[in-house]
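Give me the fold.
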Amino acid sequence: MAEEEVILKAEGLTKEFKGFVAVKNVDLRVRRHTIHALIGPNGAGKTTCFNLLTHFLTPTAGQIHFKGRNITGSSPAAIARMGLARSFQISAVFPHLSVRENVRVALQRKLGNSFFFWRSERVLNQLDSRAMELVTAVGLAAFAEQQAVDLPYGRKRALEIATTLALDPEMMLLDEPMAGLGQEDIKRITALIRTVARDRTVLMVEHNMSVVADLSDTITVLARGEVLAEGPYATVSKNPAVVEAYVGTGHG
């Protein structure tokens, strides 16, 4: 794989918690403009791996490169500014603001300040039009003036994706986007992720295997903190080691 194709690269990524190795020597290469899924049975280290990539956790060993730049040791905020944004880290954090206002706050963050109380109406109105574009893009136009707290669960997920898109990231990390969703919402969010991925890269942790099969270009399977297999779903799903790792564990 040509280096210029790789937008995110982890090498030897390891995380120990008081003697317990949660992630061990993980190598990961995510190609630009692909949807890459991180899967594995419960306790495989998927969430820890995600937290390391966005520096919510500091690795015990290993390095992370984003767009050819070593980001190991950078703060989560600095990493987000570089264009690597994690959905649900800034989810609909303001339950009593409307959908539109939540997206507008996220747009203000990109400008470098969380709140512009002293800014003119004109500036805020400019943000409003972009906020409405994003609200519409994620299928929430009909809910624009509704308080976030009153949204159905699946629509909250769409709002979380909109607030992440407001940061205009080159790469989005989605942490279990289908968790707790019913079939209709799963279809809607799957379609949304596919649309979002047209001009950016997506890395997601996901339990729902039919979603993974449907969406992913590449799948990395973790088991007990190590990479067990990697490749397209058709290949990975037939890998005997993968089948064995999942037997008796459920798809958790």
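The beta strands are 6-17, 20-31, 35-39, 61-66, 69-70, 84-86, 171-175, 201-205, 218-223, 226-231.
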